[in-house]
Specification:
- The complex is a heterodimer of chains A (266) and B (466).
- Chain A has 2 domains: 2-221, 3-Layer(aba) Sandwich (Rossmann fold), CATH 3.40.50; 236-266.
- Chain A is built from 6 helices and 11 strands.
- Chain A has helices at 36-52, 67-76, 94-108, 128-136, 190-198, 245-258, and strands at 2-6, 9-11, 32-34, 55-61, 80-84, 113-117, 140-150, 154-160, 165-171, 174-178, 202-204.
- Chain A has a 9-stranded mixed beta sheet, sandwiched between helices.
- In chain A, helix 2 crosses helix 5 (190-198) and helix 3 packs across helix 4.
- The longest helix of chain A is centred in the first third of the chain and has 17 residues, at 36-52.
- Chain A is globular, with a radius of gyration of 23 Å.
- Chain B is an alpha+beta fold and 466 residues long.
- Among the domains of chain B are: 9-97, 2-Layer Sandwich (Uridine Diphospho-n-acetylenolpyruvylglucosamine Reductase, domain 2); 102-219, Uridine Diphospho-n-acetylenolpyruvylglucosamine Reductase, domain 3, CATH 3.30.465; 223-333, Alpha-Beta Plaits.
- Chain B has 14 helices and 18 strands.
- In chain B, helix 7 (234-245) packs antiparallel against helix 12 (355-369) and helix 8 (259-269) packs across helix 11 (332-338).
- Chain B is globular, with a radius of gyration of 23 Å.
- The chains are: A alpha/beta (266), B alpha+beta (466).
- At the A-B interface, helix 5 of A face helix 9, strand 15 and helix 10 of B.
């Protein structure tokens, strides 16, 4: 059995800053880390590997620096790592990204299970995972919050559907995107990390892919036009009530009426 | 002077005039005021509770109390573990938790001035937001800073940064007779006579009531990374600690933990620990300003640990990873508490090369007395927290067992030249052990100090010394 986990290197900050002039994410000078959601996908893969003895590959798309997260994935227990890296891949939207990763997964070959995090913390679209499933034309389930069973033929999973929960049985090959908390991600071994730095990472450019049509990759393969990226504005204000309990209660009531949280009676 | 005066109607009439009505309680006293976190050491109701908001209010109350021989017990958040805030003689409980303003963060003198009721979590957050580090890091984040100062609370970062005492530069204190003293200030050093300031720190509210605190703050290191190091036994983990301490860079934190306590914590939190299946661990943290600097520290610690028999070395280098291991570590006390019906605790501090011997000894006692013993603690400074759990024992057996086993622990600690309390203090619960440990000459000096500050013995009576 062969599992592939898709991982992405993201800025190591909770507050992603946007350049107000260009509308582009500011990535310079910010530390990077593995997308936190991908850690849950990787941990899920490790648990299945533990049970089935599967071979575990990780794949990412990005510049050479993205090798750091692949090394980390190997320190966490992945057997082999692949990096889709080519100038022609740059500027990819969901469609081009998922197409490119799917090409990489095809190159790895004989893949039974693909696991992705629910979303990334920088792009936040939550679409790349399912889109890979579509490109590869295999069944896929998003928002998986629990792995009920994993055997040689397939998986039974629990899917979070906001107002309901679905139990789904899938046969391999298939793709899942997993929720935060499906398993507690383990810590990377510092010793394995040192070993992993010496290991070869397979780097794939477009010429090594099945499809060599440049129009399918990067900016030219991306129909999405991002008109504007901006930081969300927050409109928070606080009022401190520190008179007597009765006066505070009255003031709070009046505030609620003013804000139309409740209707004012007489 | 014992016997103290019981509070009567006339006293209440006068005491009432010192604070507004909504901060004065006689008939409707919340039951929490009769105990701290360790109810095993007994409860006692106060006669009056007064929430103060200024040194002047404390002074007025103390003047009246000393004139009328009424006992006064100061109290912060009540998170102590030795009965320090329990009003053993009734009287007044003087609650400082409404004095909760941070008055100033002064970057020019690298100090913070605050009232005693500010919570540890609040001061840590405020100093962090100002771009600095509040270095003391006791485990109980909902304790007040006043309480931390009064017990000289320690915590996990003591290995590198020391304890609360090391950060106190100035105090405003109300004496048992109602004088308001300014001790120390913002100055960075001070050799001006006996340090009354440092006599106050750790005095558990027996010498004065703290109404303002000035503390040192530090530049904040940019990064903190932890190593989770598994071992095949706690003993081999603990024997590694002195070797790590010898390295050229000082670790911020070195904690030890065992699988059994981790299991309790996982159950208590309903959350898995990010690492499984090892019998014992050390958590070793390093802080620094650049990745390469931290990595050089990690490399040295890793090499040392592996030479000492570590089974692997795991890295916790992101906010999420730090949270997952530190949340588990932070929950140990509550988790053990939750795992049994009643427990008693010992907070001894030992030379760091003797922690392993002591822990082995607690195991022997556990087997010999057939009682469950759990421990965790600060391996890097020799301060451990050992818990004896009642579980299925009947009341009589429990009482007898816990007393005998505790006695053995403290005797062993003394044999190893350790001290009774590393950071929780003495309160009334550990007085017997303090006397046994320090001997008559030191105890007499301590009693005399108490008498100089508090000739009538009205302030927090029955604590530390009689």
């Amino acid at each position: 059995m062969r599992i592939v986990v898709c991982i992405k290197q993201v800025p190591d900050t909770q507050k992603v800053k946007v350049d107000p002039e260009t509308g582009v994410l500011i990535r310079n000078g910010i530390d990077t880390k593995m997308n936190p959601y991908d850690l849950y996908a990787l941990e899920t893969a490790l648990r299945i590997k533990e049970k089935t003895g599967a071979e575990l590959h990780v794949i990412s798309m990005g510049p050479d620096a993205a090798k750091a997260v692949l090394v980390e994935a190997m320190a966490l227990g992945a057997d082999d790592a692949w990096l889709m890296s080519d100038r022609r891949f740059a500027g990819a939207d969901v469609l081009a990204t998922s197409f490119t990763l799917a090409q990489g997964i095809k190159t790895i070959g004989d893949v039974d299970l693909i696991l992705c995090g629910k979303q990334t913390t920088d792009g936040d679209t939550a679409q790349v995972g399912p889109a890979i499933g579509e490109v590869l034309n295999i069944p896929h389930v998003s928002w998986v919050r629990k792995l009920i069973e994993a055997d040689e033929k397939g998986l039974t999973v629990e899917q979070e559907m906001m107002d309901s929960v679905a139990h789904v049985r899938l046969n391999y090959p298939c793709l899942l995107t997993v929720e935060k908390g499906i398993f507690e991600p383990g810590l990377p071994s510092y010793l394995k990390m040192k070993e992993a730095r010496k290991k070869e990472i397979h780097v794939l450019n477009m010429d090594k892919c099945d499809c060599r049509d440049a129009k399918r990759y990067g900016l030219s393969g991306s129909p999405t036009q991002v008109e504007k990226i901006f930081e969300p504005t927050y409109d928070l204000s606080s009022v401190r009530l520190d008179k007597t309990t009765e006066e505070n209660a009255q003031a709070l009531f009046e505030k609620f009426v003013e804000l139309k949280v409740i209707e004012g009676g007489k | 002077m014992r016997p103290f005066k019981k509070i009567d109607v006339q006293d209440i009439e006068v005491l009432r005039t010192f604070v507004p009505a909504d901060r004065f309680f006689v008939d409707n006293i919340h039951p929490d005021y009769s105990h701290d976190e360790m109810m095993i050491y007994g409860k006692k109701e106060p006669e009056v509770v007064i929430q103060i908001k200024s040194a002047q209010e404390a002074s007025n109350i103390m003047k009246y109390a000393s004139e009328h021989n009424i006992p006064v017990t100061p109290r912060g958040a009540g998170t102590g573990l030795c009965g320090g805030c329990v009003p053993l003689e009734g009287g007044i409980v003087l609650n400082t938790s409404l004095m909760n303003r941070i008055l100033e963060i002064d970057a020019d003198t690298m100090s913070i001035t605050l009232e005693p009721g500010v919570l540890l979590m609040e001061v840590q957050e405020a100093v962090k937001n100002a771009g600095f580090l509040y270095a003391p890091d006791p485990g109980e984040k909902s304790a007040t800073v006043g309480g931390n100062v009064m017990t000289n609370a320690g915590g996990m970062r003591a290995v590198k940064y020391g304890v609360t005492r090391d950060y106190v530069r100035g105090l405003e204190v109300v004496t048992p007779t109602g004088e308001i003293l300014e001790l120390g200030g913002k100055v960075a050093k001070n050799s001006s006579g006996y340090s009354l300031l440092h006599l106050m720190v750790g005095s558990e509210g027996t010498l004065g009531i703290v109404t303002k605190i000035i503390m040192k703050i530090l530049p904040s290191p940019k990064k903190m990374t932890s190593l989770l190091i598994p071992f095949d036994s706690l003993s081999s983990a603990l024997k590694t600690v002195p070797e790590i301490m010898k390295l050229p860079e000082v670790a911020t934190t070195i904690e030890f933990m065992e699988k059994e306590v981790l299991d309790d914590a996982q159950e208590f939190l309903g959350k898995e620990f990010p690492n499984r299946n090892y019998p014992a661990y050390l958590i070793v943290s390093y802080s620094g300003n650049t990745q390469s600097h931290i990595e050089s520290m990690l490399d040295m610690a890793t090499e040392t640990a592996m030479k000492c028999g570590a089974l692997d070395v795991f890295l916790s280098d992101t906010a999420e990873r730090q949270e997952s291991i530190w949340n588990a570590r932070g929950a140990f006390l509550e988790a053990i508490k939750n795992s049994t019906v009643e427990m008693d605790e010992c907070d001894v501090v030992l030379n760091i090369d003797q922690v392993a011997e002591f822990v082995d000894y607690t195991r022997e006692c556990s087997n010999q007395y057939n009682v469950r013993v759990r421990s965790f603690g600060h391996a890097g400074d020799g301060n451990l927290h050992v818990y004896i759990c009642k579980d299925e024992l009947d009341d009589e057996t429990w009482k007898k067992t816990v007393e005998e086993v505790m006695d053995k622990f403290y005797i062993k600690a003394k044999e190893l030249n350790g001290q009774v309390s590393g950071e929780h203090g003495i309160g009334h619960a550990k007085k017997k052990y303090l006397e046994d440990s320090l001997g008559e000459t030191q105890m007499t000096l301590m009693r005399n100090i108490k008498r100089v500050f508090d000739p009538q013995g009205i302030l927090n009576p029955g604590k530390i010394v009689d």
